[in-house]
User: What shape does this take?
Amino acid sequence: MKISAFKYCLLILFSLATITGFAVRIPRGAEGDIFRAKSAIIEKDFKKARQYVEKAARTARKQATKAEIQFLNAVIDAGTGNYESAGTRLDAVFKDKTLNVAIRFEAFAAARALKAVKDKAPLNKEALATQAGNFKDAGLTAAGEYNALNKAAGLMISIGQDKTARDMINLADRLFQPENKIYTCRYVENPPVGAGGWLTSNILEDKKLRESRFKEYNSESAAMLFADITAGRSTAPGKKAQKDYYLQNTAFYMVYNDKGWHIFFLSGEKDIDKILAEGKSAGALEVFFTPGLHGESYYQWISQLPEGKTSIYDWNSPHRGYRYLQDRLKTNSLISKNKIGTCVFIPWEVLYDKLPLDGETWRFSMIRWSPGGGFTWGGRVHETGQWGRIQWQKPSREQALKIKKNIVMRAWAEYNKTKKKLTAFWTDEELGDSDFYNKKLKQEVKRLDGPEKLMKMPEKLTGKQISELYKNYVPDWMEFDFLVSELRRAYLEDRLIVN
Assistant: This one.
């Protein structure tokens, strides 16, 4: 889990909530003041947060609400450097036997985390394990322990203590790992084109490709992470008949071919005519994935329904191992009777260094935000450990070579386009640096131009040549601008050392 990216995405999502079409419904009374306090904490406005907390305390009635107020006060104390006061507040919650045992364990975990921060010491995992064991007889379940540790991690995230939060989340993942849904993505030579093609395709009748194991994204899930602003999204549950309709009429399909990854979302909406007539929103599709299971940065996009307008959120800076989806991910939505079809295409060149050619597994999550509430396939937003899994069907040797060949051709075209631009810049008499070009860049251009004759007749490339080009040239062809930056840095460092 990329904690820093997670923390900043919360701020961005909060500020863009209305832009993306999500209504932020702030509750009334103590719950509303608690929501405002959390927002102020995220913004590091602890003075304002304290005011909201004090206001909430005057109207709070439920024990759980009062306990949450104590948590918020502890966060504010810690955020302003008063760790002793924060520990005292959490200790009071921990010792309150009238509270749910999971809340008490959360207070204990948060107190241990703050102590680690204060003492600049490792998290005391043994103390956490011992206390969890002591609470087992009092009714602390594995799920309760997992949730409490993640909530305590959320407190650490809210005050910028990323390392301790990461330790807490890793501990939670080791203690309890819920079962993840698995979907097999198969190779299909000629997948449907566009939403219209999907809506009329026989693939929709293939039960093996249809995935509809959705569940309600309820308020408990929305509150799982302390700072997750999705708690303010429109997740209010609809009536049972309405919920049943959306659960039965929400599905996705996915396949891949030599060009890329094809995903199709089917969103049933019986009131679509009314929604269109009144110009209202039919909700949105929120999608996440990571190309692997080992700490890869994740990608996210949100497609508005019914029009299909898509906003893309890239949770990393561009570098050799991470490329933006912007201008590469293609979406298209279409209404057919009482259904909204949304297709998504991601070309392989975006993920050329993470191709699932050996049947790898990726993380994937999809949430449908509808007029009847939220419905999720892969758990909570931003919590990668809860997401579902995409198990890629291993392609045949011929299929894998087709994928690599397409990438080789795209990489060669990308390289030549970037080379032309950068060569013109560095050889410019006024803007460039001829010494750098002649001593560093020119020889790299000569090396990367080496397969030019082969690339003039791509139809004659052998399997061996394709594999060699993919391995030895594609990384620098694709990332030629980064290669030039690396060369420039080395050149300047050499000059500085000499001087």
